[in-house]
Write a structure and sequence with these properties.
binds D-ribose
């Protein structure tokens, strides 16, 4: 599975940390910590990649995680989730088949963030009929 990672200035430091901790992440920017890097642009870039590649997943980080999540979910087929604990990491994969994890870059422990990403990445979608039905409705 290919995993892309992106961040605005609010998530830049955590992105750089995660790249060192988790091998094989493909960095889609921002490539430096600058105030003019907006979460809207990075989330859009990631969402378009995910739309074209069903086997890819993305990690998106901004100050709160929410801006990235809002923007990414505007793209059909994208299921971006804000993950903040183990339960949200596990259930967003099992029930929602989430393909983008959004994280808070500010006021969030980076070791916890790393553990949550690793946990999220190894979860499988349950494939249950009721969850497939609900996901289909999201894309209508
Ligand atoms: C940028 O300062 C901040 O607004 C952004 O990173 C994010 O938290 C928005 O949701």
């Amino acid at each position: 599975m290919q995993i892309i990672i992106g961040a605005d200035h609010g998530g830049y430091k955590l992105k750089e940390y995660l790249k060192k901790q988790i091998s094989g992440l493909e960095d889609i920017g921002a490539y430096s910590e600058q105030k003019q890097d907006d979460y809207s642009d990075i989330a859009k870039k990631a969402a378009k990649i995910i739309q074209k590649n069903k086997n890819k997943r993305a990690i998106l980080i901004c100050g709160t995680g929410t801006g990235m999540c809002i923007e990414a979910n505007r793209f059909k087929g994208v299921r971006a989730v804000l993950v903040y604990d183990q339960y949200s990491a596990v259930m967003s994969r099992k029930d929602n088949d989430a393909n983008i994890i959004c994280l808070r870059g500010r006021k969030f422990d980076r070791t916890k963030a790393k553990k949550l990403v690793k946990l999220w990445l190894k979860q499988e979608f349950s494939g249950k009929a009721r969850h497939k039905r609900r996901i289909r409705k999201l894309d209508r």
